[in-house]
Amino acid sequence: MTVDQSLADLSDTLFSIAVALYSVAVVAFSAQLAFGRRPAARQLVGAGAGGGTGDGVAPVETPSTARWGLIGLGVTVLGALVHTGVLLTRGLAAGRLPWGNMYEFATAVVLVGVVAFLVLAVRTPAVRDIGAFVLAPVVLSLVAIGLFLYAEAGPLVAALRSSWLAVHVSTAIIGFGIFFVSGIASVLYLLRVRHDARGDDAGSSVLSRLPGAATLDRIAHRTAVFGFPIWTFAVIAGAIWAESAWGRFWGWDPKETWAFIAWVVYAGYLHARTTAGWRGRPSAWVNVIGLVVMVFNLLYVNMVSTGLHSYAGVS
Amino acid sequence: MSTVAPPRPDAAPQPPARPSLGRRVLDLWLRWWRRLTAMRTAIILLLLLALAAIPGSLLPQRSLSQNNVTQYFADHPALAPWLDRLYLFDVFSSPWFAAVYLLLFVSLIGCVVPRLVEHVRALRAAPPPAPRRLLRLPDSAELTTPLAGPAALDVVEEELRVQRFRVVRREPGAGPADSAGSSGMELSAEKGFWKETGNILFHLSLVALLLGLAGGKLWGYEGSILVTEGQGFCNSFQQYDTYSSGPLVEGADLTPLCVDLEDFRAEYEEDLTASSYTADITYGAPGEDGRSTTIGVNDPLRVDGDRVYVTGHGYSPRFTVALPDGRVFEGVSAPFLPADQATMASQGALKLPDLGAGTDDQLALEGFFAPTGVLQGGILTSIDPRPLSPQVAIIAYRGYLGLDSGLPQSVYSLDQSQVERGRLAEAGRANLAVGESLTLDDGTAITFDGYAQFAALQFSHDPGQVWVLVSAISLLLGLLALLLLRRERFFARVGPDPGSGGTVLTVGSLTRGGGESAARFAELTDRLRTALDARSTQPPAPSSVGAAPEPEAPPRDR
Ligand code: HEM
């Protein structure tokens, strides 16, 4: 299988375009935040007081801020389409699924994060207010991926030639992408709670324009609840694959170890969120740690330690 | 959900007399047991488990690579023994790691078994009575209707039964609906038992999974061996290059199976990425006519719970050694281990202890094999993993190999201490292409004839594996039910409406899981309102129509 170089180049160009579009979206979402009026400061929501209706008071929408939000959303959709194109052309160029090395994997994870955000934002308008905070990390991640993880399109090594690649890696990507959004929501929740606790009414702070703490907490929890079974499945599928590729289903290879750590941390988060004494901030921290573990697993384990998962192809 | 249990009494009320010792021990035990099975403890244990796994990925582990551990000892001679004392090179089989997960599982069992009992009981019991203040529930509303109280509740009950709730009606303050059949003034309804079933299934599956893992560790074994084309091995610990086995494995229990490697092929893409390895093998019980099959990466041989894998491959250079006395040894060869997977540049040693008369004229070759060799400044390197132009660079030694010295030796390298002590002396060196020879000082001629391929094969036996797989699947199913389903309780109570003389219907619901409950509750109350309005414009139905409460009817799940 030869690599179609013109398609591979097209993929690289699309990558830059996607980054540019996301950057425009960051600007639009920031404009929405900046021009939005401060929400009526009538709420100081207790952590985790879920279930209620009126807790997520979004900034009072004026037509112009709503327009900025819609522009941001539209540009993000465009960016996501181009981003999908990056992976499609990669896959076509190399004649295989576009997640054979770390560059492709990380690019796909970010795409899932963007799509998860879009789905949330379309269904719950309050989520649009965190657009800038989702898209800015997206842009930063993509730039870092382009700079540090870039690998030429190429064929897969033998061990990766299995239909489990599709099953295991795509679910890992989806789980990771959803946890990405979840982790951001928890970070924003922590910022928001701190802001609320200070009773900071100056209104100058961007934080006061975020959705309410309870809404952020709920976004974080719902996404994690969605991501967790997917991640569980990815780990199980990985074990099944390892059984046929490496001769054992579990061997505490560094990647396996960190997947396990992440799984346990997310289980801890889901428990913590429903346990007295852990609700609110402590559980949000556990979720943030979960995301840190996921990122560590991607970067450190692929680039620094060596193990059976070292297909990263980073030079 | 709220998992805050109602505050448990911290200790039994102090009786006036000093309690007996047994009593105090029991109290203490109970207190600790409650603390261990509390959810807060479980979370801390979970996070501890995550923390405990970290050193297992940052430090080299014996279970993964004994070589890396040895290297670490060499690099950190002061630190390593201390780490070793803390089991930090065997984290996942260390007592402290086991302590964390065993405590966690005790906590889990202590937590889940009571829930299981409770759940089974709840399946048969009527939904709990309505809380006194319905308007305090997370979702609640008040509806007014001109209907009389019982008639209004009839409407609610009908609607709830359509939605597959289990419904029971009670007099306020009374126990379960009295068998007199009178319509009570309040109603409790419940659905979504699968959520809790999923929860219990999930947690019990974790226990089953752990048992499966433990079984595999106790009764499983694994052996690896390098097999050159045309040769084979039988499943016994004596034959393996390396093996590991659980404490309950007896050598005699090993599955009788022999495997012969007929042919091995490695295929490459244009950019020299390996695309596939396949090994044609025959296998069968010893003495049996073997069956043929092909195994490869991602495609092991599976027979009766045992598996045979290809885990690697390499080249065994072949030589002919012609001694000055006229004896000729053809086809002597040994596997050379790949030092670089990309070019398959390989290193190894060939020991010939039995050529001469005594132990002091043993012969050995140590060297380097390049499947596609090029000479750069007299140094042989490999530029391609395929055997396009095989070459070797060898050094021949003569002397005493030290094989019978009692110290273990690697078969893949010479014992350098023998060279240093001068007991093995170099007798010649050369770079050889196929067909070329090196003649030593005493006239011995060593001819490089070519190569054979070898495969690294691994035999694995893990009796817990299927058990683990089944547990993992049921774990996932339980998790999906637990996370995606919701459990709802719905309550309604009627009271007189002082304004209109009609009825005030207070409804409230308590939802566990499933995200937004407010929207669903609003939808349900809308539907109730419509139904109430429709009914109140009709002539009032007799209060004992169709969907009369059947408090004694066996509850339906969902
Ligand atoms: C190996 C350790 C454990 C793991 C991996 C684990 C994992 C999980 C997960 C992923 C959930 C779903 C959380 C959710 O509902 O959103 C859950 C629920 C639950 N777990 Fe565990 N668990 C473990 C141990 C325990 C222990 C020790 C207890 C009791 C002390 C416990 C009690 C519960 C309860 C009551 C729920 C239901 C929570 C709910 O319905 O929201 N678990 N568990």
TrEMBL record, chain A:
Q: Where in the cell is it found?
A: Membrane
**Membrane topology according to the record:** Multi-pass membrane protein
Q: Which Pfam families match?
A: Cytochrom_C_asm
| One GO process term, biological-process aspect | cytochrome complex assembly
Identify the GO cellular component terms for this protein: plasma membrane
Where in this chain does the record put each Cytochrome c assembly protein domain? Answer: 99-309
Question: What InterPro entries does the record point to?
Answer: Cyt_c_assembly, Cyt_c_biogenesis_CcsA, Cyt_c_biogenesis_CcsA/CcmC
**UniProt main location, coarse:** membrane
Query: From the Swiss-Prot or TrEMBL record, what is one GO molecular function term?
Result: heme binding
- Segments passing through the bilayer: 14-35, 70-93, 105-123, 130-151, 163-191, 224-242, 257-272, 284-301
The answer to keyword S-adenosyl-L-methionine applying to this record is no
Keywords of this entry? Cytochrome c-type biogenesis, Membrane, Transmembrane, Transmembrane helix
Name of the protein described by the UniProt record:
Cytochrome c-type biogenesis protein CcsB
Q: From which organism does this entry originate?
A: Geodermatophilus sabuli
TrEMBL record, chain B:
The yes or no answer to whether the keyword Lipoprotein is present is no
Superkingdom assignment: Bacteria
Q: What is this protein called?
A: Cytochrome c biogenesis protein
- List this protein's GO terms for biological process: cytochrome complex assembly
Q: Name one GO cellular component term.
A: membrane
Q: Give the span(s) annotated as Disordered.
A: 531-558
Q: Where are the transmembrane segments?
A: 41-59, 96-117, 200-221, 466-485
Under the heading InterPro entries, the entry gives:
Cyt_c_bgen_Ccs1/CcsB/ResB (IPR023494), ResB-like_domain (IPR007816)
Principal localization reads membrane
Compartments, record wording = Membrane
**The species this protein was found in:** Geodermatophilus sabuli
Pfam families according to UniProt: ResB (PF05140)
User: What does the record say about its membrane topology?
Assistant: Multi-pass membrane protein
| ResB-like domain sequence ranges | 39-513
Keywords noted in UniProt = Cytochrome c-type biogenesis, Membrane, Transmembrane, Transmembrane helix
